[in-house]
Amino acid sequence: MSVLEIVIFFLIIWWPIFFILLPIGYKPITDYDSDTDFVKSAPNKPRILFKFLLATSISFLITFIIWLLDIFNYFSLKNFLL
Q1: How many CB atoms lie within 10 A of CB 33?
Q2: Which of the chain's termini has less CB crowding within 10 Å, N or C?
């Protein structure tokens, strides 16, 4: 796999993992008053940085495993797609 293929694979894997992680730990705002700009369904503590880093680490691990499988010729995305 070339560097460009690795980066594209990482980004394609990262997005679904990030969206899967978004609802984890969701707790709605309980003390809602009409003066705030938040909707009732907004999370109390979204923890976006934690979810961003977790999605990045999981995607990196999956990308690394696929890269290793490609290096040792156990699995290749090129042969899979062609």
Answers
A1: 7
A2: C
CA distance 80 to 69: 13
80: its two tokens: 């899979």
Where is pLDDT greater, at 44 or 24? 24
Assess whether pLDDT exceeds 90 at residue 39. Answer: no
The pair phi, psi for residue 10, each rounded to 5°, is -60, -45
> How far apart are the two ends of the chain, measured CA to CA in Å?
14
CA angle 59, 72, 70 (to 5 degrees): 40
| 3-class SS of residue 3 | helix
Q: Which pTM does this prediction carry?
A: 0.80
Q: Cβ distance 57 to 19 under 8 Å?
A: no
